Amino acid sequence: MALSRLLLLCVLASQVSYAGSKPIDFVCNRSARRAMNIVAEMQTALNNCNSSSILPTPVQLPCTELHVASWERKSHHERRQDISASLRHLFESVKLARPIGQAECGSVILPRLERNINSYLLILTHLQLSEQQGAVESTESSCVPRSTRSLSTLLLSYRRLITGKLERLMMSLESECTLQS
Questions:
Q1: Kind of pairing, strands 147-150 and 54-60?
Q2: pLDDT tens by residue, 83-96
Q3: CA-CA distance, 181 to 179, in Å (whole number)?
Q4: Of 82, 76, 74, 79, whose CA–CA distance to 135 is shortest?
Q5: In sequence order, which residues have a C-beta less than 8 Å from that of residue 30 and are 6 or more positions away?
Q6: Running DSSP on this structure, what letter comes out for residue 51?
Q7: How far apart are CA 20 and CA 3, in angstroms?
Q8: 94 and 149 Cβ atoms separated by less than 8 Å
């Protein structure tokens, strides 16, 4: 039991350590961002699983739709707020859907997904953004929330959030990397 907790702690620490000591290091290091995106690993684990990939309760999916023109008009703060809100809702929904005491795929994959979501949230929360001029757009989302009980659909939606909105935000912040050097 103690060994498994130590292993779990090491896995979690290694995922966050890719980002370096500061969130800006995560922004400046594309390979760290790729390494932290463990969705493909979780999808492989799901494909290799013999038990059901149906969750006991529905999970609210994050809003992954991205209208490029309206996204580009948003400030970095608004983009971060949008992504953080999606990650927080997903985190809470995944936590509620975890099967307790069952030897199913979800009992292994969902805690790992929770830790990964939390790592992204920590980075976004501590990321120092420079002031950006521009029109302030409403932070209300036009996204109609959807939910699913399919673990596969959940992972696909999470991947879209990470490789879509989050990656676009990171790429728009890469200009800060030269200023930090």
A1: antiparallel
A2: 999 999 999 999 98
A3: 6
A4: 74
A5: none
A6: S
A7: 26
A8: no
